[in-house]
Design brief:
This protein is an alpha/beta fold and 399 residues long. Helices cover 41% and strands 15% of the residues. β5 (143-147), α7 and β6 form a beta-alpha-beta unit. The longest helix has 39 residues, at 242-280. Bound molecules: pyridoxal-5'-phosphate. Keywords: 2Fe-2S, Cytoplasm, Iron, Iron-sulfur, Metal-binding, Pyridoxal phosphate, Transferase.
Length: 399
């Protein structure tokens, strides 16, 4: 088998060896239920407390403001559904964006269809940035919540979160951010940014899968999400995922401690890759903001190319990447994010997301760009649309 080049770190990351090491004892010896009173149970409880403190420290939050969940999707669901229930006496209006993760978008659809919420989906500009004037204009006396993702999982664009937080605070509206892609990649001081709720997920930061947290600022009225025992200050019942929480804490500390150096290296490789693709592959377009983007995100559209074919051929070279389009029940719908930044369907279909890690090398990037060049050429040679373009019968839709 060819050596694998993993460039799909926005989908999930490798669990770091020190994370696995830290987790193991909580499966084998320290398996006590944290709510019990004997010694090994106490050790589990201490481990949860330590992890909560570490994570709170990374955000500049208080430990009692961190509520563990079973991942990013649960945290997003909780933030929106429970805030809506708690504040519906004040109003029923929620403002979000067209480029959120489906954990937000489908929850909004549910609240709209089943619970009587009114949702405004903000547009983004061609770089994927939310328009702040549109946000201000959308606010009404009924607005109870603004939910805008910190950084986009497909195109990597980082939103003006501090400005959005200020607007929300000025109007006395709750502000939630899905920071699943941003936590551990960029500093997130929740107080300075006026963030009231924040979602994060372990497996996106070299931690385990199936663990996440929702940060809930003290004073925010929020309903319990899972009813049962008294875990998580009675707001999210269920015996804690102790190994997961332990691993998450180690992953969060590791991400915070290595952030500067790691992201500087990733940014260099990212920009090198972007520059090489732009220079060497004709008729392509970088998606997302050129500089206000995640350190590890590269997203390109290649005209006259089918993204799925490109992915399959990259896989045959041992390269793991992702396309901009999500394959839903057999039909190929182009990504809602790429459509929201104004790409025509044809262009959105020819998109490729490559997300780097701290293990990615320049050799990996060079090999991948060489293969992309080759494959794009091959696919275009089979495309009747490309033939027409070369013959001068049609124009490029890019630039
Ligand atoms: C991955 C992801 C989620 C979902 O997190 P899970 O832990 O996989 O449920 C939510 N939002 C964004 C932006 C993501 O990238």
């Amino acid at each position: 088998m060819k050596p694998m080049i993993y460039l799909d770190n926005a989908a999930t990351t490798k669990t770091a060896p020190e994370v696995v090491d830290a987790m193991l004892p909580y499966f084998s010896e320290l398996y006590g239920n944290p709510s019990s009173i004997y010694t090994i149970a106490g050790k589990s409880k201490e481990a949860i407390t330590a992890s909560r403190e570490t994570i709170a420290g990374v955000l500049g939050a208080k430990p009692e403001e961190i509520y563990f969940t079973a991942g990013g999707s649960e945290a997003d669901n909780w933030a929106l559904k429970a805030a809506f229930e708690a504040y519906k006496g004040k109003g029923n209006h929620i403002i979000t964006t067209k480029i959120e993760h489906h954990a937000i978008l489908h929850t909004c659809e549910y609240l709209e269809k089943e619970r009587g919420a009114r949702i405004t989906y903000l547009d983004v500009d061609e770089d994927g940035v939310v328009k702040l004037d549109q946000l201000e204009n959308a606010i009404t006396p009924e607005t109870i919540l603004i939910s805008v993702m910190f950084a986009n999982n497909e195109i990597g664009t980082i939103q003006p979160i501090k400005e959005i937080g200020m607007i929300a605070r000025e109007h006395g509206i709750l502000f939630h951010t899905d920071a699943v892609q941003a936590f551990g990649q960029v500093p997130i001081p929740v107080d300075e940014y006026d963030i009231d709720m924040l979602s994060s997920s372990g497996h996106k930061i070299n931690g385990p899968k199936g663990i996440g947290f929702l940060y809930i600022r003290k004073g925010v009225k929020i309903r319990s999400f899972v009813h049962g025992g008294a875990q998580e200050r009675k707001r999210r019942a269920g015996t804690e995922n102790v190994p997961g929480i332990v691993g998450y804490g180690v992953a969060a500390r590791r991400a915070a401690e290595t952030m500067r150096e790691r992201t500087q290296k990733e940014i260099q490789l990212r920009d090198y890759m972007i520059q090489r693709i732009n220079a060497e592959v004709p008729n392509c377009k970088l998606n997302g903001h050129p500089s206000r983007r995640l350190p590890n995100n590269v997203n390109f559209s290649f005209e006259f190319v089918e993204g799925e074919s490109l992915l399959i051929m990259l896989d045959m070279e041992g390269i793991c990447a992702s396309s901009g389009s999500a394959c839903t029940s057999g039909s190929l719908d182009p990504s809602h994010v790429l459509l929201a930044i104004g790409l025509p369907h044809e262009i959105a279909h020819g998109s490729l997301r490559l997300t780097l890690s701290d293990e990615t090398t320049k050799e990996d990037i060079d090999f991948t760009v060489d293969k992309i060049k080759e494959i794009v050429k091959k696919l275009r040679a089979m495309s009747p649309l490309y033939e027409d373009f070369v013959a001068g019968k049609t124009k490029s839709m890019i630039q």
